[in-house]
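Practice problem 4.
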């Protein structure tokens, strides 16, 4: 009997929580991020509502540009404690629906419902509707759901129709579902990999699936094996309720490559706040803070520092992240992406809690 995995992704989560807390913002373009200061602000868009996206506003866009695209939008700073509380409530709801549950970020989770429902489409639709309705009624938030026989396809299905979408991929139709999608849509394919694939004539996931595994392995090594299997809709990974959280990472790709240090530091500050909130939510402190920077030519560097003792001090984290990043900014090249990573996590009793979080944005 095939597995039945659901991936639940909360729609425009931060912005949706803000609209929930401010009913007067319902239906308005809402932008979560830095203060635009009349179009002269520094910093980036963390996320925005679907109404704001109609104006061309996107995550990681300089806040000044977002303001120019829609000066009448509601601009609000992020409220991480509020988002974490909303996330915890939603995850509590999802736990009750699956025989196995795996939270993978603040706004998404997998549940294994193989033992919960039958395989008929009507039964799946009814079950998914119950999840959506409970989240909407109790938390006043919307979500999109993907259903498939494995985690990879379920996650891609949840992104297929947004917002408030439901996409069911029948068992045996995984490869067919993926085939016409652009190869960039495949989880794990970034711009650099996409460029290499396009050079060999691969534009869609279906075309990638047709490339012999041996050729992919020769071109990409072990990563090539993953690409071949993923393109063919293959994924045997389990929905894991508990395993060690070893790190907390946040990454942001600027909409346009930049040399603006104030913009870069503002983005790192915001990601550090977000990562630290996740740290606190899970009762962790960290001993190592690291940064990641990718230049316009895709050359990537990382640097980290381990403290004498674990901390949750936001000021220390921000200061150290900036210090680690500063030497790279003397480079003549523009910056494409920056990231923050907290590792060597400890709890008060110095034992790892069995939880998991990972970021694919």
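Answer key:
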């Amino acid at each position: 009997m095939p597995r039945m995995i659901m991936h639940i992704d909360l729609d425009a989560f931060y912005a949706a929580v803000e609209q929930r807390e401010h009913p007067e913002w319902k239906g308005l373009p809402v932008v979560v991020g830095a203060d635009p200061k009349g179009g002269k602000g520094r910093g980036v868009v963390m996320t925005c509502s679907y109404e704001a996206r109609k104006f061309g506003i996107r995550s990681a866009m300089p806040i000044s540009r977002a303001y120019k695209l829609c000066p009448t939008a509601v601009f609000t700073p992020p409220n991480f404690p509020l988002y974490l509380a909303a996330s915890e409530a939603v995850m509590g709801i999802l736990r009750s629906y699956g025989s196995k549950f795996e939270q993978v970020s603040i706004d998404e989770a997998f549940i294994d419902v193989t033992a919960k429902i039958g395989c008929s489409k009507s039964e799946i639709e009814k079950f998914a509707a119950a999840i959506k309705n409970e989240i909407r009624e109790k938390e006043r938030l919307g979500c999109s759901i993907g259903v498939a026989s494995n985690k990879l396809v379920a996650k891609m299905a949840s992104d297929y129709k947004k917002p408030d979408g439901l996409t069911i991929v029948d068992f045996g139709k995984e490869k067919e579902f993926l085939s016409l999608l652009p190869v960039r849509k495949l989880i794990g394919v970034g711009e650099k990999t996409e460029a290499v694939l396009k050079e060999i004539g691969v534009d869609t996931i279906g075309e990638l699936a047709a490339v012999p595994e041996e050729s992919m392995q020769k071109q990409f090594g072990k990563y090539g094996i993953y690409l071949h299997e993923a393109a063919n809709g293959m994924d045997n990974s389990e929905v894991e309720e508990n395993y060690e959280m070893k790190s907390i990472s946040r990454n942001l790709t600027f909409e346009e490559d930049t040399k603006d240090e104030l913009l870069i530091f503002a983005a790192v500050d915001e990601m550090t706040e977000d990562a630290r909130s996740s740290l606190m939510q899970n009762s962790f402190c960290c001993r190592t803070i690291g940064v990641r920077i990718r230049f316009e030519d895709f050359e990537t560097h990382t640097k980290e520092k381990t403290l004498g003792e674990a901390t949750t001090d936001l000021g220390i984290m921000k200061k150290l992240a900036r210090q680690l990043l500063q030497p790279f900014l003397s480079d003549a090249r523009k910056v494409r992406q920056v990231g923050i990573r907290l590792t060597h996590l400890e709890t008060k009793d110095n034992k790892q809690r069995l939880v998991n979080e990972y970021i694919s944005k």
